[in-house]
């Protein structure tokens, strides 16, 4: 399976970026993870729109989305998989040491890996620190995931598979690699973008396809929610069975199960060959 880099396909062993790439030295880059089902990319246009928005937010030159599409198609054709995950990485390019990107030409890498079907119901914990909902990079899908990586390691040590962030105002925000939905008094709710969460594409689709509503929620809602689920490209809708040690019996509950059903029914229509 080859990787797209420097405008063409290369064997994985020779697909290398410079050690001076700003993506490596200072985390100056953006990325997307796209699910590929039987050779067709799911919601690719939405992912490319977000890639462009994130790049613009970092002040990177606009990515050539036709090239990104070509790269995705070439990589998928090169290594067909029943269920795959494309990783698109677009960085500040080879730059002088330090934070100044200068006039570097961006680096584009597209790689394909295997994906797994929807994971089983899981345990989550709250993250031990807050997400800054007012940072310059909030809402951008950047390659600076150190905070998420450390929070996820915390979750793993606690026997959970995801950590949920509150923001600096004490409101529910998102997971380290997922958005979060809660059921409260039978209503399906998810934090608004102003909470500092990523504009998750799965979140958007669940909002469009179910009666879910955006709601500014205190972090403590996790102590009362009747149901909780996570959304992300690789999970689609994943039920939560344990929040900070509190059991949510019968997960997936009825609202979560319905969201999964709706997702399964509707998602076939958004595949991009
Ligand atoms: N929040 C964060 C921090 C993420 O990394 C992800 C995964 N991309 C999501 C939310 C979910 O986004 P999506 O549904 O677009 O995969």
Attribute tags:
folate biosynthesis, seven-stranded antiparallel beta sheet, lyase, Class-IV_PLP-Dep_Aminotrnsfr, pyridoxal phosphate, single chain, 273 residues, alpha+beta, Aminotrans_IV_CS, 7 helices
The number of E-state strands comes to 16
Q: Separation of termini? A: 19 Å
Helix content: 25-40%
Low-confidence stretches: none
Q: What's the shape?
A: globular
Strand content: 25-35%
Count of DSSP helices? 7
Keywords: Folate biosynthesis, Lyase, Pyridoxal phosphate
Cofactor: pyridoxal 5'-phosphate
Family: Belongs to the class-IV pyridoxal-phosphate-dependent aminotransferase family.
Pathway: Cofactor biosynthesis; tetrahydrofolate biosynthesis; 4-aminobenzoate from chorismate: step 2/2
Describe this structure in words.
The chain has about 270 residues and is α+β, with helices and mostly antiparallel strands. About 25% of the residues lie in helices and about 30% in strands. The chain contains seven helices and 16 strands. It has helices spanning about 20-25, 45-60, 65-80, 145-155, 200-210, 220-225, 255-265; strands at about 5, 10, 30-35, 40, 85-90, 105-115, 120-125, 160-165, 170-175, 180-185, 185-190, 215, 225-230, 235-245, 245, 270. The strands form two sheets. Strands 7, 8, 9, 10, 11, 12, 13, 14 and 15 form a nine-stranded mixed beta sheet that branches. A seven-stranded antiparallel beta sheet has the order 2-1-6-5-3-4-16. The radius of gyration is 19 Å and the shape is globular. The structure holds 4'-deoxy-4'-aminopyridoxal-5'-phosphate.
């Amino acid at each position: 399976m080859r990787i797209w880099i420097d405008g063409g396909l290369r064997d994985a062993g020779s697909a290398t970026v410079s050690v001076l790439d700003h993506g490596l030295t200072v985390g100056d880059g953006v990325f997307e993870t796209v699910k590929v089902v039987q050779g067709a990319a799911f919601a690719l246009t939405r992912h490319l729109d977000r890639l462009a928005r994130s790049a613009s937010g970092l002040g990177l030159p606009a990515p050539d989305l036709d090239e990104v599409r070509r790269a995705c198609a070439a990589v998928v054709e090169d290594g067909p998989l029943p269920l795959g995950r494309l990783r698109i990485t677009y960085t500040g390019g080879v730059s002088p040491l330090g934070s100044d990107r200068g006039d570097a030409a961006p680096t584009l890498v597209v790689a394909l890996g295997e994906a797994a079907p929807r994971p089983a119901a899981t345990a989550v914990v709250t993250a031990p620190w807050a997400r800054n909902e007012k940072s310059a990079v909030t809402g951008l899908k950047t390659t600076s995931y150190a905070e998420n990586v450390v929070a996820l390691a915390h979750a793993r040590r606690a026997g959970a598979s995801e950590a949920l962030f509150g923001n600096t105002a004490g409101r529910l925000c998102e997971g380290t690699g997922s958005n979060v939905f809660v059921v409260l008094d039978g209503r399906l709710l998810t934090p608004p973008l102003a909470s500092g969460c990523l504009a998750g594409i799965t979140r958007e689709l669940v909002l469009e396809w179910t009666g879910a509503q955006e709601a500014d929620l205190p972090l403590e809602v996790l102590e009362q929610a009747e149901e909780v689920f996570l959304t992300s490209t690789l999970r689609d809708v994943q039920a939560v069975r344990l929040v900070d040690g509190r059991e949510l019996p019968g997960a997936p509950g009825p609202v979560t199960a319905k969201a999964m059903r709706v997702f399964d029914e509707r998602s076939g229509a958004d595949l991009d060959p």
